Amino acid sequence: MNDEQTTEIKATPSSAMQELDPEDRANVDLQVSTAKHYPRSIKGAFDEMVSTACMNEAIATACFYSLKRGSNVIEGPSVRLAEISANAWGNLRVDTKILPIKHGDRFVKARSIAWDLEKNVAIGIETQRRITDKNGNLYRDDMVGVTSNAAASIAFRNAVFKVVPRTLVDFVLDKAREVAFGNAESFAKKRTQAVQSLIGRGISEGALLAFVDKPSVFDLDAGDLTKLTGAWNRVRDGEAFLEEMFPEERPDGDEPAKTTNKVAEKIKNRKPKAKDKPKSEVKATDGQLEELVAKAKERYGYETDAEVLDHCRNVLKDGGLKSLGDMTDSEANEVIEGLEK
Q1: Which of 54, 154, 233, 290 has the most CB atoms around it within 10 Å of its CB?
Q2: Phi and psi, residue 286, nearest 5°
Q3: What does each C-alpha distance from 53 to 108, 207, 253 come to in angstroms?
Q4: Model-level pTM?
Q5: CA angle 212-214-219, nearest 5°?
Q6: What's the 3-state SS for the chain?
Q7: Architecture of domain 4-173 in this structure
Q8: What is the pLDDT of residue 1?
């Protein structure tokens, strides 16, 4: 695991100037003068943030991150949204640098100062990331470089969001989530696409389910997809390693465990009940379950998959059905036939 710590440091426009080269100071004077002559429109900046972040699904999906801490998942705006915000806010200068690493250091530090040239407000953020493994050995040079860039990205992101009002950023973030995962009608398809995409990047289904503590893919809701996509965004943006965000259990130190999810293990090890499915029966396909969910929501106005699951329990008279993914081919067809009558 990479220990991470972020602190706000004392920064003023004058202290920010002192960190610049003489040539850069002259450029800053010109930037300040320009900012005073062409002040920003807060509404214009806000509208641009929304329109850019919500331009399409790909951009919207890149606007948030997730980080698991113990049993909790922390979510927030990503470095990509910080770039969008800084550009739209305007009259903003952000200087980010990686501090020198000395012999014996166990952490790399990065510092970022966001300076609102129009309002003459400067805020500095310093982030540190561990560059030694669990045994205390220093990372290889290439991994030190990756970790250093991650620290710089995090410092940049946090500094920008200290200057651009967080109330505006949070509103943009909510809009981006809506665009990323759409409404109930398109959710089933997007869920399948999102899971297949993450598995295609080398993440096992068990690790995905463990991250959000769900027993099956068909139990994932929009909030879960936000967390999973946000976690991948941290890896993609260079803020974390893949194995750090989606760890695999390795019982014998060799092959990753097929399932790391506690709930899934309980289901796997539970005692058979009268209504448990014979092992010889074929599981329902993704296509069957997607069709079932869509038809149930269309006919009865269900808003969540949990409501559809309750409907299936009633139709099948199986109160022990734990998830849609546990249904067999014949059971799914039975429910679908009932919805088509």
Answers
A1: 154
A2: -60, -40
A3: 31, 29, 42
A4: 0.63
A5: 115
A6: CCCEEEEEECCCHHHHHHCCCHHHHHHHHHHHHHHHHCCCCHHHHHHHHHHHHCCCHHHHHCCEEEEEECCEEEEEECHHHHHHHHHHHCCEEEEEEECCCCCCCCEEEEEEEEEECCCCEEEEEEEEEECECCCCCECCHHHHHHHHHHHHHHHHHHHHHHHCCHHHHHHHHHHHHHHHHCCHHHHHHHHHHHHHHHHHCCCCHHHHHHHHCCCCHHHCCHHHHHHHHHHHHHHHCCCCCHHHHCCCCCCCCCCCCCCCCHHHHHHHHCCCCCCCCCCCCCECCHHHHHHHHHHHHHHHCCCCHHHHHHHHHHHHCCCCCCCHHHCEHHHHHHHHHHHHC
A7: 2-Layer Sandwich (3.30)
A8: 45
296: CB partners within 8 A, 6+ apart:
302, 307, 308, 311, 335, 339
pLDDT in tens, 139-189: 888 889 989 999 999 999 999 999 999 999 999 999 998 888 865 446 777
Q: To 10 degrees, the CA torsion angle through 114, 115, 121, 122?
A: 50
φ and ψ at residue 12, rounded to 5 degrees:
-130, 165
**Separation of CA 151 from chain center:** 17
Q: Which residues contact 288 (CB under 8 A, 6 or more apart)?
A: 329, 332, 333, 336
Contacts of residue 338, Cβ cutoff 8 Å, sequence gap at least 6: 315
| Distance, CA of 45 to CA of 3 (rounded, Å) | 35
Residue pLDDT, tens place only, 248-299 = 754 444 444 444 344 444 434 444 444 444 444 788 888 888 888 888 877 7
**What is the rounded distance in angstroms from the CA atom of residue 207 to the CA atom of residue 152?**
28
Q: Looking up tokens 């009002």, which residue turns up?
A: 165
